[in-house]
Fold this protein.
Amino acid sequence: MSDATRQVSTVDTGVEDRKTTIRLLIGLPLLCAVILGGWSIWRQTADLDDIEARQLAWGTILELTRQHIVLTLITTAVVLVTAIPAGILLTRGSFRRYSGFVTGFANAGQAAPVIGLIVLLAIWLGFNTRTAVLSLAIYGFLPVLRNTIVGLQQVDQTLVEAARGMGMSAVDVLRRVELPLAMPVIMAGVRTALVLVVGAAAFATFINAGGLGALITTGINLFRYSILVSGAVIIAVVALLVDWAGRVLEVLLTPKGTT
Amino acid sequence: MSTTTSGQPAPEKDSPTSAVSGAEIVFDNVVKTYPGQSTPAVDNLSLTVPAGKIVMFIGPSGCGKTTTLKMINRLHEPTSGTITIDGEDIRSKNATELRRTIGYVIQGGSLFPHMTVEENIALVPGLLKWDKKDIAARVEDLLELVGLDPSRYRNRYPKELSGGQQQRVGVARGLAADPPVLLMDEPFGAVDPITRQRLQDELMSIQEELQKTIVCVTHDIDEAIKLGDRILLLSEGAHVAQYDTPQEILSNPADEFVEDFVGSGSSLKQLSLSRVDELELQQPVIASVGDEGSAAAAAARAAGQKDVIVLDARRRPVGWYSLGEATRMSRLPQESHEDISVVDRRATINDALDSMLASSHGGVLVTGRRDEFLGVVTFTAVTEHIRSTSESSPS
């Protein structure tokens, strides 16, 4: 891996060294437990008014969190089934020449403010979860696409030629050599996308698509900072946990023998 | 083809000792022009690679030797002309199927890092849909063949192997489906000289057994002389400068280009033509693992020797001590703390000289099949040999 990461150092693929990964795998859940524990104690002991008590009811919080996570997962699934095949395609034969163009386009998708995108698309397509998923997917598309392309490009070409020279078909080479060897880089992109999406999903509430963003907007509208801060804290914890889950997947999917 | 060349095979170097399993490869007016280039990389090459022989492709970089090699397994397609293997046009079946019948060995082994040794070797048999049991047995045989203990190495990943071991696995992988033709692209370029020498020796003993048709690209003239039954020396555009046995290329270079390429030290290069087993081996008194040190030393001294050579139960050399060292040992141990200089009997005299320079005993031990001890080559024996050959061939 060291060669590979050095080669692509101009593009930050988010691949970390093993020690950092292990430290984060243990540290992140601990940190989340501490934050959540602290918040729960505050929630149980604080003197809350009617509005606060209703908004911060355990049932409401759990439901909003569920919506938030579902939104994130559906969006990520959409990103995976579009960006990975697109990345693969853009490293094949004559499609290679379009990779700059498509990456630039995806860059624009990420650079556009999500809040603008989500509202504009909602005016056009309707205020619902589907629109939220679409705009979040546009937002999270780039890291997965870029890392898929970079991950595949950094696979040692002599290995690819060796595989072809041994009589593997193009599909075999992709499936058994290129994708496994690109997996750490691709998964780092997936993790980046997950974290981007989980944060941006807070905006879904603006177009009636649910999620923890509701706590933040309610908090602002009703001048209840306890609700606002609670929403922010819970989103942060969910983001950290999603990042952690991404790391676990990354470790599980990185083929043995390559680290 | 230039007029000075002989495209036809020269007289045989030595007759095969076991059944030839290789196939003949014939190039007929093969041209390869890369798009956007005016001069062809391979310009009208006609060539016959005889079945069961090792042919070394050598020439300056950019001469088209690798392109020529890769046209055999269709990693590069000829612009015109035909290539046949065993009389069959390689374009008669699809490239993927063709490649499964041709072994391919690349510099450094090019093992897939995410697959174990076993998975790497089993790849082509797997593509050919062999039975699982047959594949496992085949992997075991091949690891034995290249001198790696299957139980120890089968489940290792490439990064857990040394460079030489990776290259051995690379050779095993190339031979996995028992292909009649083996293509090697600078196979031993990435390992240190001593390991390279061992790998070359091993390749030769494997070839003695298997009699494949091996086409091997190299940039090392000594390697070409050592391994090749025939050497194809190419100049730019893959023009055949000379295609002949190593002896002929050394003693009768076709033109100035060949002479320059082979180098001025060609009488010394003759040392790469002679094998260690052509020399007279000394047969010293030997000791076995577990013998009493002082007794072994006394026996050696009585025979007029200055050192004690220790063999294990399978007659493999495991220790080489001075009389003093041996006397101080109560029992001769199974493992020596220092490296002992050993060459295979198929090693060239050049290799033996190299190893001697690293040895503190003024000689090297010679081993045969399965590393069994055959005798000792001394520096005196080598100089004697050089003197006798230079007297017999005035140059």
